[in-house]
Specification:
This protein is mostly helical. It has two domains: about 1-110 and about 210-245, no CATH class; about 115-205, no CATH class. The protein is built from eight helices and no strands. Helix 1 (about 1-35) packs antiparallel against helix 8, helix 2 runs antiparallel to helix 6 and helix 3 (about 50-80) runs antiparallel to helix 4 (about 80-105). It is found in: Membrane. It is a multi-pass membrane protein.
């Protein structure tokens, strides 16, 4: 009976580690996509040190989970106590790191509010000054997502004009808010002159906060569910690893 229980635990351990292996592969793929994505999101990540660091942390965590899932599977099938102990210690460290990251994300969630982004935009945005990282990043966001400002074009009314375009002196709307045939920096303007002259027909009127929130809402819930699932799997894997470790003679 004890041998049957040990054998059952061994295969359950293998199953849990297989899911950890798959979760690590997903995180690794997501991290690579964020860094090499050609649609413009890469520019946002590169310009923001926090996001840039987060992308590489995601890569490292994915690679580590990928490796540990593999080691856990091998340790369970071969009943190797050394591999099982190594797996348990590292999966515990990863579990604690992920839990700490989730707590920090909850604590600093107020930095992702509409008011915070609006305040930062009005304080640091310099319109077409692409030598400024903050302005270049916002221009890339507005072009890629066909949006304007955080709430809409009214966000730019209090921002002083810079002598990068004489047409921009007519309206508060920056060039990046003008409609394009293709949503990229290389895309042709539908009617740039009319846009900068104040014709709303040729401007992107919707705020970026709403557009981006709607675009990523599904993925945020999916990522949250995946994170909870991964934490639960890691917890069960640690329990099975220790039970299997103690059961091996």
């Amino acid at each position: 009976m004890e041998g049957d229980c040990l054998s059952c635990m061994k295969y359950l351990m293998f199953l849990f580690n297989f899911f950890i292996f798959l979760g690590g592969a997903c995180l690794l793929g997501l991290g690579i996509w964020v860094i090499v994505d050609p649609t413009g999101f890469r520019e946002i990540v590169a310009a923001n040190p926090l996001l840039f660091t987060g992308a590489y942390i995601m890569l490292a965590m994915g690679a580590m989970l990928f490796l540990l899932g593999f080691l856990g599977c091998c340790g369970a099938i071969r009943e190797n106590k050394c591999l099982l102990l190594f797996f348990f210690m590292f999966i515990l460290l990863i579990f604690l790191a992920e839990l700490s990251a989730a707590i920090l994300a909850f604590i600093f969630r107020e930095n992702l509010t509409r008011e915070f982004f609006t305040k930062e935009l009005k304080k640091h945005y310099q319109r077409n000054n692409d030598t400024d990282v903050f302005s270049a990043t916002w221009n890339s966001v507005m072009i890629t997502f066909a949006c304007c400002g955080v709430n809409g074009p009214e966000d730019f009314e209090a921002i002083p004009h810079l002598p990068y375009s004489s047409l921009e002196k007519v309206t508060a709307t920056p060039e990046a808010c003008c409609q394009r045939e293709l949503q990229s920096r290389e895309g042709m303007f539908v009617n740039k002159e009319a846009c900068l002259s104040g014709n709303e027909r040729f401007q992107n009127r919707q705020g970026c906060y709403t557009v981006i929130l709607n675009s990523f809402e599904t993925y945020v819930y999916l990522a949250g569910a995946l994170a909870i699932g991964v934490l639960a799997i890691e917890l069960f894997a640690m329990i099975f690893a220790m039970c299997l470790f103690r059961g091996i003679q």
